[in-house]
Structures are given as C-alpha cells and as structure tokens.
Design goal:
By secondary structure, the chain is α/β, with parallel strands linked by helices. Helices cover 34% and strands 27% of the residues.
Amino acid sequence: MNINECIAKPDSPIRSYWEYMAFQHVDICIVGAGIIGLSTALECRKRFPNASITILEKAPHGHGATTRNAGLACFGSATELLHDIDVFGSDHALNIANERFLGLTSLLKRCAPDAIKYEPLGGAELIRERELQYLHRIDEVNAFAENITGDPQTYRIVSAQEQQGLGFSQAVQAVIVNTYEGQLHSGYLHATLESLARAEDIRIEHGSDVLHVNDIDEHGTLLVSSQHGEYTLHAQTIILCTNAMMSKLAPELDIKPGRGQVIVTSPIPDLPFQGAFHIDEGFYYFRSLGDRVLLGGGRNLDFEGEETFEFGHSGIIMEALETMLHEIILPKKEFCIDYAWSGLMGFTPDKKPRVSSLSNHVYCAFGCNGMGIALASRIAERIASLLEDS
C-alpha cells in the first residue's frame, strides 16, 4: 500500500497509531454525558470493575437538559399524580412515581448533598379555581403516596394564614405541601457526577458527535464526528443516553423531543417563600433561587411547536411565564428578568422509561419525561442490571 492509499483510509487522518491502539476499542461506550449517561457509567463501573468505559458527548458538558433544567428534586405534585391515576390507572401511576422517589434516594447516596447544593425545602402546588376539584381527592392521593413515602400524610393543605404569608395572588385558593421534595444546583450536580466518573477511570470525550450506530457480529460501531473529522469507534456494548436526541440514533423508539423554557428574576428583597412549587399538573414549575425566582414550563400551550430539537424561545410561552410571575407568583413585587434559556427533554407517551436492548450490542437508557434528576440514578441501575443478566 502506498502513502496515498493509506491517507485515503477514513481513520488515518483522524487518529494516530497511539490513539487508535489506546482509544479505538472499548468494552462499554455510552453516548451522552448528561445525568443519565454519567450515572450509567458510574453504575457500570460498579458492576464491571475491569471494563474500559468511554462516554461520548457532543457539547462541552451535558447540555440538552442536564444543565438547563430547573433543579427540582421532586417526584410528582398532587394533581399530576391524580391525573396519572385517571389516565394510566393506579398501578401504572404508582410505578412512575415510585421510580422517581427511588431515583432521588439513589442520587443522594451517590452525590454528597452539600456538593450538589441540595436543599430539602419541600415541594408545594398552587391550586387555582380550575384545580379546586382536586382538593376533594387529597385523601385519595395520600393513600396513593403512602405506598411511596410510607407517610399517610405526604400531602397537606396549608392553613389560610400560612398561605397568606407566601405572598401569592388571590387567584391562588389553596396550597398543597409535600415535605419529601427538595431542590439542587444542576450545574454542581453535573460537575459532581463528572468528577466521580473521572475518579473511576471513566473516559469522557467531549466534542464527539455520534452520527450513526451500527451493530455487527463481533461488536458495535459508532461513526463519530469531531473537530478534526469523522472516525469510527468499536465497542462491545453501546448504551444510548441522549434524551431528546434519542430518536435520531434510534428512530424505532417512541420518544419525542420537548423544549422547556426557563426564566430567572432579578434579586427580590424579602422574598416571601422558599422551596419548589408546581402549577397546573406540573406543566409550570418555580422555585426560590436564593433571593431570585426561577420559573419554567408552559409547554402545554403549544405541544406541537415545542416538539423540536432546536433551542430557543417561543413568544407565547415567554409571555405566559412573565404574566404568571406578575399576576400569580409575585404580585406587587418589582423585578426584571435576568436570565432566560431553554432545554431539550424527551418524552414517551406512557411516561415510562425505555431501558432495553435494541440489538446484540446496542442498548437504550432513557426515561426522563421532564424528571431527569429524579429518574437518572434509577435508570442507570436498571440498565446496568440488564447488562449483567445478558
């Protein structure tokens, strides 16, 4: 073979002999360095201590939803759980909520609460006139939630005096509190998981965009695009953990993208509440962020328009978020919007994770449905167990 023939080989200009020998073949390759991808790598290291593990990530860090979410450590507002019971049935709804609760428990075992700025301030839900019917079902949702928390009074309707002290508008007719929820710092969560992964000899290759995954008899292959060009990587096991982008690599899965939009206010003196809150079956969510307020959601105003792979903002939703701040959450308070961003999530029609084998060497580990913080650790445990059994 002459030098021109060698240069024509696809991998020749991209990887040196040293790189090819050291990095081109791995035991486990995980696509996506977000919450699920990093958690999956750590769980695989626990189960397979001698395996070579590499994570491929397109962005400088977990980007789609991992560092662009609201940082809520929650497992379901009362009205969301009741909605799921009505739509999916009690057993199905219980499985969804219990997996979230178990996932949060696992997350707080893996990551030191101080490291991820976890605050056990509880969760709550604002009830307006349109949701008043749910108040009559508080005993029902408590009986349901007792199977998860062990507490027959997981959800509590606050007193009129306590509600008044929270400073919401008169449109809020009741507040339901759940003390088993909290909030955290999504940036520090990602940094902590990444640090834990590196400490466990897990290689993370940023700037690596996986274009295609193929399965052959001996192993799986990935076509990867980097700043230097395209190359292939071979792995005995490939695990797809790409959240909203999953359908691009595995179109056979019933996963659709969904954009979430978030805004953060300027500092508000004497902010009257602390903790995490939901409105409208969880489609809107807000939390204290020091003396600021973070608010996100509104995807239900335009499901079709928000089913996108593109970051960005919708005027309809941004206007709705600001209106909710002024008219419901912070009436008579002066503030401006200091931060605004969007994140990309993935959704399944039944709200259940997709943790399964797609072929001999390719697996998927997905199931956020807007609850990535709660579900990531649990999904990681499930996919690692599936590999052990295969």
